[in-house]
## 1
Amino acid sequence: INYMEEIPEILQLARQVKENTERLLEKHYKDNIDTIRKAVAWKKSAETDVIARGALYKLFSEQGTDDDTPEDRARLISESIMLWAETTGYVYSPKTKQKHLPLVLFKFQKRMIKELVLAIETGYDAMIEKSREMGVSWLVLYVFFWYWLFKSGSNFSVGSYKEKLVTDGTIDSMFGKLDYIIQNQPKWLMPKGFKKKIHFTKSRLVNPQIDSYITGDTMNADFGRGARKTAMFFDELAKWDYSRAAWQSSSETTDCRIGNSTPDGYNFYKQLIDSGIHTIRLHWRENPLKDELWYKYKKMKETPESIAQEIDISYESSR
């Protein structure tokens, strides 16, 4: 009975949150209108002018030289990734009126891209601890896809605790997101000789032009064993049954392991963070589309344990 009495207030707040999210999204695009106009102009120029296309390709693919320090290379690559992503990229957003949104990066997302690239180029492990719905999987895949598209010999692996989150082909899966990224790339930017039916399987993406790869696997104790990898992505690592074994088995495979998760009690994922490993923290308050109204609605709708675990990045309260 008490719950039934609260339903009208919940519904009213839900409508307010939905309208507020649309308003905040519109504000985000208005604040970054120059970025959008530039992307539109560049894409139009590249469609009709071969010289403009070549110039744009050069900007997208800038990766420095072997004489540069890893830090200098990471800076150049990060700038190229962000330029390419904001020019050609889209994300699928099921909770907004417009489902296919042009990718205009938030400040915290730009920071994350820079830190990921530095970890890849320098060769060290990194943890990402985050609130729910911060777009981490999208960003990691955009970074990996840039390497796949432009940097010869790149070899990445992605995995999660459920098979459907890796390879079921829907937009919720990582290979479904990769498919979505490919669909939105201009044809002139894709590798020469690339044929989707041949080079994009359920768990393997091949660039035949520069011999680069992205492969997918699900949670298992031997995750990561095998050929050398440029970097590996452990999605929702806190939920892996074999997190310790999988993490340790990949230590000889790559210099850059990237673990990502919301808290799920004190487990191996939290132990890694406490060990002093480089950690990228992404709290919901950094997201311009979330505010106190959204937080109030979530607290009314969900349990305190869920709020602690999924939103407030609290390990103690999520045990």
## 2
Amino acid sequence: MQDVLVLENVYKSFGSRTIIDDVSLTVKEGEVFGFLGPNGAGKTTTIKMILGLLSADSGRISIFGNDIEKNFEAAMRNISGIVENPDMYGYLSGYDNLLIHARACGAPRERIDEVVYMVGMQMRIRDKFKSYSLGMKQRLGVAQALLHNPKIMILDEPTNGLDPAGIKEVRDLLKFLAHTQGLSVFVSSHILQEMQQMCDTVCIINNGRILRAGTVEELTKSSATGIFRYRLRPMDAAVRLIQENIPDRIAQITPEYIDLHIDEDEVDIINRRLMENNVAIYGLNALEASLEQIFMQITGGGNVIV
């Protein structure tokens, strides 16, 4: 996949305070890239630099190979962004708001129908903007950002203030745009569970520094919890045996399974001991770490929503 957005060794300070400290990241074509961190971690400052609203002190930001310092107009032709909640004319319809923006950015009128269809707003596009729910306003904001046919879209906390139904609407829309339309979506958030469901790749930032980056699968597998889930028969005998021999390794006991804190090289020893005591193993799997657990491991916590 092609590299759409690249940041290399980017720094940004305000006065004597360093806000962004040697940030490097790469967003590829057709992926939902999650920029995850607590409030104040540097997410919005980074986004403003990507969109050309702030200048980096040093380092390089390029969009489709165009350095935004040296070739700003060419870089900006391929990008769009929503830094805060979409702000449109409440007394106008969704369509008329898009028409105004289409004229401003030089998009043809037929493009409006295309983006309305893409965000699923056909049934309400002639209604006034002020009558829309927050989720619908976000979808119309995405439609506006798509008018000039960008290659990458930047969204800062797009699910803030939305109810669960609205969050799902936005999540499904962004995944659809990335995976079926080839759009690269760069989305910042501090909501861990939502990012895990939405994103292909995640980059974790804290105090202006990148702490970890990779696909969600890579991160969850590389940060294994060290917990193995056993399904055993007879369960009562299995529980007694484990409680007598390794009580400090028990993470959880339920009527269906028992979770043990053990290393991978201990699994064979445990299995052999169970079978020697006539306990049958009919289910065994390693539990992967959640994005919440990974975040807590590498940051020590933070003001994130789980």
## 3
Amino acid sequence: MLTLMILASTSTVAQPSSQPPSAQRASFRVLQLTDTHLFAQAQETLLGLPTQLCLQRIIDRIFNQLQLPDFIVLTGDLSQDGRAESYANLSALLEPLGLPIYWIPGNHDCVKTMTRSLQAPIFEPDKRFEYQGWQFILLNSQILGEASGRLSNEVLEALTHQLETGPKQPTILALHHPPIMLQSAWLDSSALENPDELFAVLDRFSHVELVLFGHIHQEMSFVRQGVTYLSCPSTCIQFDGHSDTFALDVDHNPGFRELELFADGTWTSQVHRVDVKLQPDLSSTGY
């Protein structure tokens, strides 16, 4: 188990390139959105914040102020109540972007319901795919009925097989739960339970460049054995990672992560946030 001693909270992260500055490097863009926590009823709130309104603000920012990405990866807790209507709300919000969307479940999601609900034309079923010289592998870390996560033996065996037999090109993994300890008792109690088993696989393959995750509702980054691990802000409430008990972060707004991936295997990443003038319920002791 790796313990992170210092939390990084920078808005831009970049991997240095060995190419000269003048080199022309083809690239593409990917967005990570996570922990949307939508409800069947659009007006419902999570700890005082209307999650659907927050996500709409995120989508408006993407549509109006950014160069549209090639696709979006959703890293879990898409629904708070696990109902089909909440996933229908998600579809209605994202469909106007006209982008392919890949997804994995979080601990609040109902996998059977989301699998039935998140269908073509916008949602992609693939959990391993290649795009412009990069490989993407999406991992299900959900333990049914538990807040914490675990990568099953089947998932780890499939990951090993994919990394052994697949193309030796730059690879990004995505999962919901953090494979680290944050030194925050309440967040650490729901982290990935078997990170060392994941690390044992990744340590064998030098072409893994990035691991993306959600769940902790905050931005951070760290590097282990040459692999960069990036978390993403929630599109709604933000958590205080410095507290031993449940606590919200009111200093940071909802956000999402943008990645630019280059043909030479280098990358840059930036977190974008939107201003939502809403006050969460600070008296809450959980959700």
## 4
Amino acid sequence: EQKRLVRLIEDRDYAAEGIAQLDEQVARAILMNADEEYMVDILDRMELDDVTDVVESFPEELRQRVIHQLEETDEAMMGLLDWPSDTAGGLMNPDVFTMVQTATCGESIAALQGREDLELIHYLYCVDATGRLVGVTNLRALLTHAPSTPLVKIMSQDVIQVTPETDQEEVARYVERYDLLAVPV
């Protein structure tokens, strides 16, 4: 029934969004029964972390063919496929909102407004000039401070983070214990 329902959805963006919400095995079954052109088109419309969840369960030959055809085939996808699906590395979404810690709230808000590609934004991650994570702030703090306020003044430097090898259960414990919406990997 799910397979028939997906086929009835003419808007492929909507179909991709729906498939991404399904259990990985159901999504895999739906896509495996589709022609390869449809499969690649749907996967191209999904968020990178959702694509890797589905594609990693494909048979090796099909996985390589599909990855080669995807527009988003890049280091980020290959990096996600390197990690077991039950680890922070396998669950992470590489599309996060970062700004250099010396940027202002106003600059950050302007940059955020130009990032329609981000699926979910819970935090702004502050980085140093080399791209290393040095702090985090939530969107409320960003919006309630004067536009001229530097991020370094409002960011928390006590960042809870995990490594890509961290088991998903441990990540869940951090989320629950510290009431987090996301955890940097």
